[in-house]
Amino acid sequence: MPDVVVVGAGVIGAACAEALSAAGVDVTVIDRGTPAGGTTASGEGNVLVSDKEPGPELTLAIASRREFGVVLARLPEQVADVEWEAKGGLVVAKGEPEPLEKFAKTQREAGVDARVISPADAFELEPLLTRAVTTAVYYPDDAQVQPVLLATALLAAVRARGGEVRAGVTAIAVRQKDGRVTGVETEAGVIECDAVVNACGPWAGSFGTAAGGPIEILPRRGMILVTAPLPECVRHKVYDADYVGAVGSGDADLQTSTVVESTRAGTVLIGSSRERIGFDDAVKVHVLRELARKAVGIFPFLADVPVMRTYGGFRPYAPDHLPVIGPDPRVPGLWHATGHEGAGIGLAPATGRLLTELFIGVPPHLDPSPFRVDRPAVVGVS
């Protein structure tokens, strides 16, 4: 019998399972689909400290950036190549430079390496950048990873330590006795355990309800364009200053902001969009057109580059823009790890570490209270 069943084999569930198993906890991971086949597969692989205002999420991001080295070193050798690239990020503005410079200053005060550079320096970093740029901030700690490779490698580490990963197993409810979790009910039967981790991403709200611990997690749709393979053309993660505002917005309407980056395969990823439209997965041509238009505004050469494909997915959105990490006080033995929206790849290592620290009862490496389950925005109490 496992100690813990993690429901959800995306990057957050995989990171929690890996950290728990590294601490000696017996873990089983289940997913109704294939591992890393949901939200994780629709991500860009962003590991960013540059897009977050000072506060709890930035603190988690800084900790997670440090934790990546620890986690990657624990991976089995045969799956250790997750296309990790510490390429750095470049945020550019084409208007008044003061807002971007002010934002960078507040981040530096919070411990981020944020370097305001001149347009000439920006063009040296990215020669194909539009000459309309008026100011830029360079973030050497921004990085990129292949999200599916990362999640599957984390799960491979769980298996290597004796844990189990089961695909195609749908969790239905949590079984309790004397007020504590005793197992998780699935379509394939009951898996007995002492604790259950709800890592269901944008579906965490519905599973939380089924488990007796409802939480307010909503899906937020995002779309990405993928170009045909190209010679080296975009060297860093490059995005416009509007990206920060879009990340932190709670507006349900469509928002787009430019983020452009290359992959090891030579393709260029173009994002990003955010829209709260439930689980509507229809391809919206007007969204793709807007992404392309804005990307050309940053990198004019993209106007002549063919788009090979597009993909999108649903990201787990919490109304106060903070992840939910920790025990559910209403159901002893039920834990949650969700609500990271589009930042789950970058926040996964610190999330796994924090949940594990709380689970085994050691002092956490950062203050867990901002991410607690029983906060008003998540459980709807005042």
UniProtKB/TrEMBL annotation:
This is Glycine/D-amino acid oxidase-like deaminating enzyme. GO terms for molecular function: oxidoreductase activity. Keywords: Oxidoreductase. PANTHER family: FAD-DEPENDENT OXIDOREDUCTASE DOMAIN-CONTAINING PROTEIN 1, SARCOSINE DEHYDROGENASE-RELATED. Pfam families: DAO. The keyword Oxidoreductase applies. Gene3D superfamilies: D-Amino Acid Oxidase, subunit A, domain 2, FAD/NAD(P)-binding domain. InterPro entries: FAD-dep_OxRdtase, FAD/NAD-bd_sf. Residues 3-358 form the FAD dependent oxidoreductase domain. GO terms for cellular component: cytoplasm.
